[in-house]
């Protein structure tokens, strides 16, 4: 995929290379970063792999047709060299827990191919001014330093989560806790919350990951600055604390989902929808404002049929007059048993509910006036999309940053109600009995989120106010709008004030 054109070869514009991590929840916001930077005056090269490019093809086509200065480059992923099945180029294509480590280790081999590309092919006739890379791409630091290209780390999760992990590591908290399910407070966190070791333990800090972990933290330390998918008004105290902790520039530029202004862009965010959007909008238009509970658990989480049945029972038995639901079931194509149960469930709930099998246009759905609640796994993309839309959440975290995001939504922002999940479940593992949530708990949280009353109305009011602040952040003069300009100015500073290939001292930017 070449995408070359004159406007992509402008030597007077900052040239920024973007390197996303190969997971759908990481690819989506990085595409939005490309769109926003190019719209703000930069030239962008977006590096990915053939399989991942194919998955976001509608978005690529839309950006290329808009004539924004974004070039998408496909570099082969070394699946075979890492002992992975052909085409295993994205985390959600990993079929077994045994393949996760080979996939992560393959990233460094991919890094060698990226370095070869950058040194033998001139992407835009203009050398790179800086690289913005997903934090999971631990190999970028060594490659960027060997090429004398400044590199900026992109954190996909909330600042609340990133700051928490930083503070836990700083104080070596987890080493002193033996019980994985003992509640403790994160030290120095501006808004103290209680969590469990099992909920915040990162895979890179577990035994056997020492080499990757060492590279990850080395790259984290060497980065010139930090870009985040959040906004100042949402996490002000956390951002202030994080800036002091790391001593570097931190540029929040979110919510990135708001880069998609029109209905078609919202519908395409992520992958092609599994449902006709006209049919979906017609169904939503038939529902009263704030009457639909939207249920979706992201691109990685999978529910066994036993859990799907419990969710279905909870949705079906919710007695609130506002109990319509829109449920995304990715598991439908995996099992004849699931499909048979779903068909019976749909027949029983006809009129009240709609089931989408596969990928749903989430940003578009959340922005519809009929949606009054969102049952979510608390992935940060989904959480921030709900915040931007002013929608209250029912929180059901599974792994990674999701439990900390739940604490932010429920305890700090107070715009969510917890389903009650305590036991983490990694996306490639089978769900244990302890991790299951019963239908009765699902029913209770649906009724609580969708009900009125003083408590419910206060929650909705807070959500609406945050949604308004989110929209203003990306408007001209808003905090995220201004931070986008500062990132480009940083890159232009590399271009104007130094000979190519030299890095400006960090002290000038801190």
Automatic annotation (TrEMBL):
<dbReference type="InterPro" id="IPR058980">
    <property type="entry name" value="Glyco_transf_N"/>
</dbReference>
<keyword id="KW-0808">Transferase</keyword>
<protein>
    <recommendedName>
        <fullName>Glycosyltransferase N-terminal domain-containing protein</fullName>
    </recommendedName>
</protein>
<dbReference type="Pfam" id="PF26168">
    <property type="entry name" value="Glyco_transf_N"/>
</dbReference>
<dbReference type="InterPro" id="IPR002213">
    <property type="entry name" value="UDP_glucos_trans"/>
</dbReference>
<feature type="domain" description="Glycosyltransferase N-terminal">
    <location>
        <begin position="15"/>
        <end position="256"/>
    </location>
</feature>
<comment type="similarity">
    <text>Belongs to the UDP-glycosyltransferase family.</text>
</comment>
<dbReference type="GO" id="GO:0016740">
    <property type="term" value="F:transferase activity"/>
</dbReference>
<dbReference type="Pfam" id="PF00201">
    <property type="entry name" value="UDPGT"/>
</dbReference>
